[in-house]
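FW: tagging you since you asked about this chain on Friday. Here's the raw sequence from the shared folder, copied in full. Didn't touch anything.
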Amino acid sequence: MAQHLTVADLVRTLDDFAPTWLAEEWDNVGLLLGSPADALTGPVLITIDLTEAVLEEAFTHKAAAVIAYHPPIFKPIKRLVDDSALSRTLLRAARAGLAIYSPHTALDATRDGMTDWLANKLLLSRQSGSPHSADRRALRPAPSLPPSQRLKIVTFVPADALERVRLGLASAGAGMIGEYSVCSFAAEGTGTFFGSDKASPAVGNPGQLESVREMRLEMVCARRALPIALQTLKQFHPYEHPAIDVYELQPQPRRDTGLGRRLILDTPQDLETIAQRLKTNLNIPVVTVAQAKPGKINTIGVCPGAGGDLAPLALSDGCELFITGEMKHHEVLAMTAAGLSILLCGHTATERGYLPTFAQQLSTRLPSAKFIVSTADADPLRAV
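HL: got it, structure written out here
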């Protein structure tokens, strides 16, 4: 393992794959324990839950970090004393210098993350060895708006000063779109003004109506860069009082990213077939179903873990079946009464099988690090 690798490198890799802005507002994702500057001198252990047994496993592997899908720090902690399993685990991890990162709902929402893995398990045919075809999109598409594009600055400038103002705004951080800088749009028009006797117009004379050939200049801008961008614009603009508009930009939903997935099967299937396929592909002994109405199923909603909150959305989006790990009894009753069948596979049964795929995805993105899937991590419940 490269000695120069740090926790910050791991955090960047995780945030590139499953950006923390994709997480739900109620969630607690990202680096929960440790310093980004610490060296990543050992392997990274991946687990669903950070239990005391998993922590012992991390020590056995001399791990430098743990990626715990479920945030071990979720509710506010008022004290850290040695009187509970969680407190003991966090205290021992901190004393050992172990970094802890949780991706949780960001990993659910990202493309090729946990939810897409579960959808693939639903579609995979063991007989043919290939997945059934289905149109796929997020049940709740993620609003995508990078920080550098939260605002748009619009100003109106004489043509001969356009380049000076454009480059000035770019130097202040405006016009950043992805890997491109100095991004702008300019269109020609006519501006008018009537200056008072106290005005000092850069073009024309006070006391009379003036018409000036101007360029409308537009550039995106990060919220944090707005004050310096406006100051720079006024500095490079020739007008005494330049016209400036600042617009709040709306997020652009991404079809392939967000919570849950809606699948429209090319070939409708019956509930029994779907249930048996999931049992086989998830390698679990039992699934439970609540059938709302007979007949073949064409549109399916999918969400790993406890996805009951998404069931009404799946119903309103035309789904006939909703697949998740667990739901409350009265949620199941309400959904089946409304016409939505339910298939439950067990909370972590819809999550844990993804971890080897996750480890490979991270290894590809950060090949100088070693990722290990925990063997001590286990479902606390078992069928008897």
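FW: The first helix runs from residue 7 to 17.
HL: agreed, and The longest strand covers residues 252-269.
FW: great, closing this out.
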